[in-house]
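Handout, section 3.2

Students often ask what a structure token actually looks like in practice. Rather than define it abstractly, here is a full record for Endonuclease/exonuclease/phosphatase domain-containing protein. The first block is the sequence as you would receive it.
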Amino acid sequence: MSVRRVVLFIPGFTLEHNFKPRAGVCMYARDDICYRRLRNLGDSRFSTLWALVDTGLDKIIYACVYRSHSGDQETTGLTQHLSEAAEAAQQRYPSAQLVLLGDFNAHHQEWLFPFQCTDHAGREMRKLALALNLTQLVQGATRVPDVDSHTPNCLDLLLTTDPDRYSVSISAPLGSSDHCLVKSVSVYSPPDPSPRGTRRMW
């Protein structure tokens, strides 16, 4: 096992990743969670990772996303990839919820604190959210600037088709990161599986 793998190893969890130089994404899946990585939805040009979680009662499609500080053309390509992959996933799993999360590096005044302006990436991501019926749940600054002239801003997003299902909070950065920790907790409670009514013995 390489040093990198040892450092990233967490007992009780399985690591899935799409690492790239100065970019990439990863996710840890708890060993008792039923999930499947959707490799057919990936695109080697972009830092994305798709997975399907099956709770036994419902299904959730997760897309982990990192958008680098790239030009407008690459941003448009990423948005098109996310749209096409999400539509393919929803056709395959029509009842599944959809969650896109990660560092989008996009600014849109409609749902990104504290920006009063919108850039190309923001317009593209906002259009994607509207097309897929996604709600943006992160409501605060997630990047702590390391330059005095810069202002805190929200770059890390959680977009979902089921906004009532999640509670989102923001905590201080871990280690030397300049991004805050964004924590989402499902507030969904599965129905009680216990039998209803009077049990009869024959």
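Discussion prompt for tutorial groups: The two ends are 59 Å apart (CA to CA). How would you have guessed this from the sequence alone?
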